Amino acid sequence: MQLSRFVVAYRDVRPGEHVLYSVLADHYIGIDSATSDAMERWARDRRPADDAERETQQVLLEEGFLVRSRSEDDANLRAFLERAAEGIPDTMHVTLMPTLACNLACTYCFQKEAPAFTKMQAHTEDSTLEWILHTVDERALRTLHVHYFGGEPLTRKDFMLRTAEVLGASMEARGGSFKWSCTTNGIGLTPHFVREMCRFGAGSFKVTLDGDRETHDQMRVYRNGRGSFDEIFDNVVDCAGLVKIFVGGNFLPEQKESFERLLDRIESAGLRGKLEGVHFKPIVDTQKSKPSCTGCGDKEESQVLVQLNKSIERRGLGLKALGGSDTLEALLGPCELHWKNNYTIDPEGRVYKCPAVAGIPGLEVTHVAAAGPEKVAPLVALRPWQKCGDCPYLPVCVGGCLGGKYLKTGRMDEVACKKEQFELSFRESIVRRYLAEFPAVEVSSTATAA
Predict the structure, then answer these.
(1) What are phi and psi of 351, to 5 degrees?
(2) 361, HSE (Cβ side, Cα atoms, 13 Å)
(3) What percent of the chain has pLDDT over 90?
(4) Which end of the chain is more exposed for a tag (fewer CB within 10 A), N or C?
(5) What is the DSSP string of 336-393?
(6) Between the CA of residue 398 and those of 229, 299, 391, what are the distances in Å?
(7) Is 154 helix (H, G, I), strand (E, B) or coil?
(8) Is the pTM of this model over 0.85?
(9) Closest CA to 209 of 242, 187, 181, 224
(10) Confidence band of 442 (pLDDT split at 50, 70, 90)
(11) What angle do CA 118, 119, 122 make, to 5 degrees?
């Protein structure tokens, strides 16, 4: 009898009170020191000392914190990944890229030096809509969620309106539902366009603000170097309340105070309660400007992420769609690359499993005009996460952002390890959740589970 390798222990959350957290089940339980000591004995093939220990052992086994063997642990992982591969039940998620062109030249964008101008042509658009609806019918799916991405999708408002109208009507005729979302730089976001899109189904926009005006305008600029902060922020203010809007941001560790000032600006503009939430993440370096060794800069990056998440929650700006203010939910994977019914379609009609590599010939799994089965996604063919060993976060990470890793290194056999970030983020969130749910309770030998 042994502790599952996908269980993380947080000791002394209160004196003599410890928390076990199952990454596989997003489930935790409180135990006392006597139980912790007993578990160490059981791992050495010692039997429970008495009936009370035997009962505790059985509870921990049934709840998945203990396993009888490594093979049982492996089987539980396989079952978890099979369930995760289903993604959102009965739902097809398609990222549509109507163009690779963008009206900004962000300093960390891999296309800033060689901007793309490709846009989807009418015949490819028709084939794309046909392919999507054929796949929905073939798999008997009830919900279609289309995510508009780019490039900058708002430079193709005509495409967004046209496809949303067709797909919304088609899903309604099938007795299903249509949802849409859009990741945008916020240039061109207007109340009129928002209202037009909302005629075809429930939707949302994610708008990026990289810190306060000074920092943002150094990073997210037009090709002539002019900053974009004021225009984007004003558009968010004008559209907040008309549609769900998420604010995202990409930070470098030394920019923490700038992002705090951005949060101040969001509050002072009266956006609390009008946004669906704020979520910041570290910049993914695809410029090969840093060494590719695992863990470079991770500690400082992770600490800043935890601090910013605390500030977001304290201000009441947490992600509503991800379980209130609990930003840990945003980390729970695996990512859509591993979902069976998730696809990204580039302007040429190539179909990918990961939006990070969309537009790169050879990494697609099929084409909207092709006949026959799709191939295995090249990013997962080598199963690089098998190198992760006994990492407890493997079930929700599965090698991390494999697309981002490929853009940086050109390799498909490496993982993008963020273990330190997971350790800090999970500890902060799980302990906070546990203490909030069980305030100052006296822990018994079986303790309290959630």
Answers:
(1) -110, 125
(2) 1
(3) 80
(4) C
(5) GGG-TTEEEE-TT-EEES-GGGTT-TT--SEETT--SPPPPPHHHHT-GGGGGTT-TT
(6) 35, 20, 10
(7) helix
(8) yes
(9) 187
(10) low
(11) 140
Q: Read off the pLDDT band of 319 (50, 70, 90).
A: confident
Burial (Cβ within 10 Å: 0-12, 13-18, ≥19) of residue 219: buried
First-to-last C-alpha distance (Å) of the chain: 22
Say if residue 36 is exposed, middle or buried (CB neighbours under 10 Å; 0-12, 13-18, 19+). Answer: middle
Residue 129 to residue 21: CA distance in whole angstroms: 43
- Mean pLDDT lowest among 11-15, 108-112, 395-399, 423-427: 108-112
At 292 the pLDDT is 34
Alpha helix (H) residue ranges in 120-247: 122-138, 157-173, 191-198, 213-219, 229-239
Tokens of 98: 């109507």
**Cα–Cα distance for residue pair 430/18, rounded to 1 Å:** 12
CA atoms within 13 A on the CB side of 350: 21
Q: Residue 440 — pLDDT band, cuts 50, 70, 90? A: confident
Where helices occur in 200-297 by DSSP H, the ranges are 213-219, 229-239, 256-268
Strand arrangement, sheet containing 244-251: 277-282, 244-251, 202-208, 177-184, 143-148, 91-96, 342-345, 350-352, 366-367
143: part of which helix (H) or strand (E)?
strand 143-148
- Alpha-carbon distance of 142 to 220, in angstroms, equals 38
Q: 3-class DSSP state for residue 442? A: coil
Measured between alpha carbons, how far is 436 from 429 in angstroms, rounded to an integer? 11
Cα 85 to its chain centre, rounded Å, is 15
Rounded Cα gap, residues 365 and 343, in angstroms: 9
- The label of the residue with tokens 């601090």 reads 307
- Return d(Cα 156, Cα 235) in angstroms, integer: 18
Distance of CA 141 to the CA centre of its chain: 22
Of 144, 194, 137, give the one whose Cα is nearest residue 169.
Answer: 144
Contact (Cβ atoms closer than 8 angstroms) between residue 71 and residue 62: no
CA atoms within 13 A on the CB side of 245: 28
User: Quick one: which of 278, 283, 266 has its CA closest to 213?
Assistant: 266
Half-sphere exposure of 423 (CA within 13 A, CB side): 12
Residue whose C-alpha is closest to residue 22's, from 6, 1, 11? 6
Residues 257-300 have pLDDT tens digits of 999 999 999 999 999 999 999 999 998 655 544 433 333 346 78
Residues 421-438, buried b or exposed e (16+ Cβ, 10 A)? bbbbbbbbbbbbbbbeeb
